[in-house]
Amino acid sequence: MKIYKSISEFNSLKDKLSELSFVPTMGNLHAGHLSLIDLAKQYDNEIISSIYVNRLQFNEKGDYEKYPKSLEEDIELLEMNGCDHLLLPDESILDNIDLIKASPKSNKLCGKNRPGHFDGVLTILNKFFKLIKPKLVIFGKKDYQQYLLVKEFIVENNFNIEIIGGNTIREESGLALSSRNNLLSKKNKYLASHIYKALNEINLSKENLNEELITNKKNYLTKLGFDVDYFTACDPSTLEDSFEIYKSDILIAVAAKLGDVRLIDNILLSKL
Ligand code: PAF
């Protein structure tokens, strides 16, 4: 795997590269990220990943500073899993960066209590897309809103990029893999698995999908000690609240804090 340790190093070599599939990350890699590299292998491009903790997308300085870092292990994992190129941008990536304003959809779900979060995400991705010029990009659907916003951003800005969404990878307990899981105590990690339990129970009773069912599951998490940011049933394209499971698929999405660790998860209920 070829490692580029700065933007200028990448710029000086990029013209020699063949067509690329891009898997952007903030590092602290786990099986969820590796499943995206595996997905990339199904396409006929070389694979490039990036590791960059983007401070523009953090609302709290503390959250940015304590974001887990494990560069050496990450490099080893990418190498072992067949990634061809790794970009490790230096802070010059932020020089003269165009600040992107995400669409109003960014103010729903994760954007409600994290103003500017998706502006920061799209700002850095816009820079990456222009720098790397990938043919294909791969995003995990655990961050469903991010996946949706990036998908729309690519179309609106006429990038010639195909986007693929990777399914959420879970621990045996059901807990969705996330770099933030490393910040959970053993007890909280066990409690955290109840998010998926709640989502699954909604799936099992989806013929009765209504506000009360969602509120009950939200209260169940609150009683377990979660500080629930949102627990929503919504249309997967507009992200507007919806319980119309007889008309279309419905996204059930959750964000909740355990201590000071923020976790997100979602499932897509298929139309009845
Ligand atoms: O999902 C992430 O890890 C980040 O939001 C991303 C896409 C790497 C942009 O910083």
Number of strands: 9
Sheet of most strands: 6 strands, parallel
The name of the CATH superfamily of the largest domain reads HUPs
SSE order = EHEHEHHEHEHEHHHEEE
Structural class: alpha/beta
Entry summary:
The protein has 272 residues and is of the alpha/beta class.
Keywords:
alpha/beta; binds pantoate; six-stranded parallel sheet; 272 residues; Rossmann fold
Please, could you describe this protein's structure?
This protein is α/β, with parallel strands linked by helices and 272 residues long. α2 (31-40) links the parallel β2 (20-25) and β3 (46-51). The chain folds into 2 domains: 2-166, HUPs (Rossmann fold, 3-Layer(aba) Sandwich), CATH 3.40.50.620; 179-266, Pantoate--beta-alanine Ligase, Chain: A,domain 2. It is built from 9 helices and 9 strands. α5 (117-132) packs across α6 and α8 runs antiparallel to α9. Strands 1-4-3-2-5-6 form a 6-stranded parallel beta sheet, with helices on both faces. The longest helix has 16 residues, at 117-132. The mean pLDDT is 97. The protein binds pantoate (PAF). Pantoate (PAF) binds at residues 24-26, 54, 57, 121, 124-125, 143, 146.
Secondary structure elements and their pairing?
Elements: E1 2-4, H1 7-13, E2 20-25, H2 31-40, E3 46-51, H3 61-65, H4 71-80, E4 85-87, H5 117-132, E5 136-140, H6 144-156, E6 162-166, H7 186-192, H8 194-204, H9 211-224, E7 227-234, E8 250-258, E9 261-269
Parallel strand pairs: 1-4, 2-3, 2-5, 3-4, 5-6
Antiparallel strand pairs: 7-8, 8-9
Helix pairs in contact: 5-6, 8-9
Bound molecules: pantoate.
